[in-house]
Amino acid sequence: METKTKIEHTQQVYGIRPEAQEFPMMCVLSFVYVCNARCPNCPYTNSEIRADYKDRPFMNEDTFKIIADQCGEYGAWVRMSGGGEPMLHPKAVELMEYAKGVGARVGLITNGSKFTEENSRRLLEAGIDMIEFSVDAADAKTYEKVRRGLNWDTLRKNIKMMIKLRNKLKSATKIIASGVNQKGVDIEAIAKFWEPLVDNFQKRKYLTWGINDPSISADPEPYLPPERMIPCPFIFERLNIDSRGKVMVCGFDIAAVTDMGNIHEKGIKEIWHGEGFEYYRKMHLTHKGTEIELCKNCPDWKYRSWQHNYWKIVKNAEDSRREKFDRLNIQDVEGCIAESESRQNK
Asked: What pLDDT, in 10s, does the model give residues 131-152?
C-alpha cells in the first residue's frame, strides 16, 4: 500500500509545479448555478448553495472574458465546471469560442443533455481541447437512478454524434467519459461500456465536499495517507472562480467561504502570488495543513493525487485520439469507428 501510494500519487519534492510558476495551470469556473438534473451525488443538489447565487446564476460575459484573456496569455486552461450544467448558459458556445480565440485551453465537463449538431460542430471547429461527459452508468436503469432528470438515450445519441462529427471534421478535441465509483453502480461495467467509444474513461472517486454521505463511496481508499499530511496538489496548480469573479482557494470550497480576491479588482496572476495562496502553500509544505480550518475539515484531501490528475487524463486522451485517427486514415471517415465498436458491444 505504501509503495503504491508513493509511486502513483506522491512525489519527492512538493511545491508549485513548473508550469504554474507564473500563472495557475487551470482556472476552474463555476460558470453556471443552474442544472437540469438532480443527481444524488451532487453537493449542489444536496445543499442550498445554488440559492445563494440567485443574483448571479450565470457568469457574466465580461467576467468570463477577463478570465479567458488572462488564461490565454499563458496558455492556461479554462475549465467549465462548477455549480450546474455549463451548456445551459445562454452564451456557452460563444464564450468557449472566445476563449479559444484568445489562446486559452478549454475543458468542458457536461452531462451531455444539451448538444445539437450545430453547437457540437461549433465547439469542435473552435478546437475545444477536451469535452468530458459525466455518464455514471452503462444502462438506462442505473442512469435513471444516478442521473435523475436526464435521459439515457439522449446521452448516448449526443455522444455518438459528437464522436462521429469530431472524426469527420478531424478536430483536435479530445472526448472522454467519467463515472463516479459509488455504491449501486458497477464501475468496471461502466468503464467497459464506454472505453471503446471515447478517448479515455475516468473512474472518479466519490467526493463529499463535506456535504454528501461518505458511506456511499465504493472506493474509500485514500490517494494521500491522511496521517502523513502530504501537501494538497490543488493549491500548487489551480484555482477556482465563482460566477461573481470571486476566487476560492480550492475546489473543495464550493460554497465560496474563502476569498482570495476578485478578478474584477485584481489580476489572476496577482491573486495567484498573493498572501492568501502563499499562506496555504507554506502551511501545507510545513505539514501544518490541518491547522487551517478549511483543510482540517476537508474529507476529500486524501483523494487528491500529485500523479493521477487532470494532466495525466489529458495526455492519455490525446494519445488515444491520435491512435484513433491513425486507424481512420485507412478507412472512410464516414465509417465512424466509435459507431462500429458500439454495435459490437451491444
From this structure: 999 999 999 999 999 999 999 9
Cα separation, 204 vs 213, in Å, equals: 16
Query: Cα separations (Å) of 210 from 17, 96, 194, 270?
Result: 27, 31, 30, 29
| One-letter-per-residue 3-state SS of the chain | CHHHHHHHHCCCCCCCCHHHCCCCCEEEEECECCCCCCCCCCCCCCCCCHHHHCCCCECCHHHHHHHHHHHHHHCCEEEEECCCCHHHCCCHHHHHHHHHHCCCEEEEEECCCCCCHHHHHHHHHHCCCEEEEECCCCCHHHHHHHCCCCCHHHHHHHHHHHHHHHHHHCCCCEEEEEEECECCCCHHHHHHHHCCCCCEEEEECCCCCCCCCHHHECCCCCCCCHHHCCCCHHHHCEEEECCCCEEECCCCCCCCCCCCCECCCCCHHHHHCCHHHHHHHHHHHCCCHHHCHHHHCCCCHHHCCCCCCHHHHHHHHHHHHHHHHHHHCCCCCCCCHHHHHHHHHC
Percent of the chain with pLDDT over 70: 92
- The CA distances from residue 70 to 91, 98, 107, 180, in Å, are 19, 12, 16, 32
In this prediction the pTM is 0.91
Which residue in 201, 82, 81, 199 sits closest to 138, CA to CA? 201
For residues 307 and 9, the answer to whether their CB atoms sit within 8 Å is yes
- pLDDT tens digits, one per residue of 233-288: 999 999 999 999 999 999 999 999 999 999 999 999 999 999 999 999 999 999 99
Other beta carbons within 10 angstroms of residue 11's beta carbon come to: 13
Other CB atoms within 10 A of residue 152 CB: 17
C-alpha distances out from residue 128 to 97, 124, 181, 261, 325, Å: 8, 6, 27, 28, 17
